[in-house]
Design goal:
- The chain is α+β, with helices and mostly antiparallel strands.
- Helices cover 32% and strands 13% of the residues.
- The strands form 2 sheets. It has a 3-stranded antiparallel beta sheet with strand order 1-2-5, with no helix packed on it.
- The protein is extended, with a radius of gyration of 18 Å.
């Protein structure tokens, strides 16, 4: 007797529309959905979420970035993605094991001039001095913003 299992269907990739991204970033910058019990204001995560929305990298890759990953090549500037965090461990590769160079446009350049890459996981691009960025809180905040009534 042979048992056959139904083929798993991959969920289609869902992307935010530009208007939704603006609403989400606005909610972060103004702490609109910030619970009173939160250790950090959502605006603390604004540079991080803004960076993710501009670059489209995985959160684990963004957390692994350091200053040396921003490189100039000729008259262009690039961000090099070649490592990531997984379960609190720095991996010497990305999920796909590929090194990617992402071109920095003017909007991203402006963001990078107001924040600092201060080291692995330190403030996750926010330029703060806290020693660790609780990614789970940021992801919960993103989910809260996505489920907000204004986005229905």
């Amino acid at each position: 007797m042979t048992i056959t299992f139904p083929k798993q269907v991959k969920k289609p990739i869902q992307c935010y529309e530009p208007e939704e991204i603006k609403l989400i970033l606005d909610a972060f910058s103004k702490n609109i959905y910030n619970p009173k019990s939160s250790r950090y204001k959502h605006s603390y995560y604004y540079p991080y979420v803004s960076f993710l929305s501009l670059v489209g990298c995985r959160p684990e890759e963004a957390l692994a970035l350091v200053k040396e990953d921003i490189r100039a090549k000729g008259d262009r500037t690039y961000i090099r993605f070649n490592k990531s965090y997984s379960k609190g461990i720095l991996l010497p590769h990305t999920k796909t094991h590929e090194i990617r160079l992402f071109p920095v446009n003017e909007q991203l350049k402006a963001l990078l001039t107001i924040v600092q890459l201060v080291g692995h996981r330190e403030a996750a691009l926010a330029g703060k001095t806290q020693s660790e960025m609780p990614l789970e809180e940021a992801q919960a905040s993103i989910r809260a913003a996505r489920l907000a009534p204004s986005l229905d």
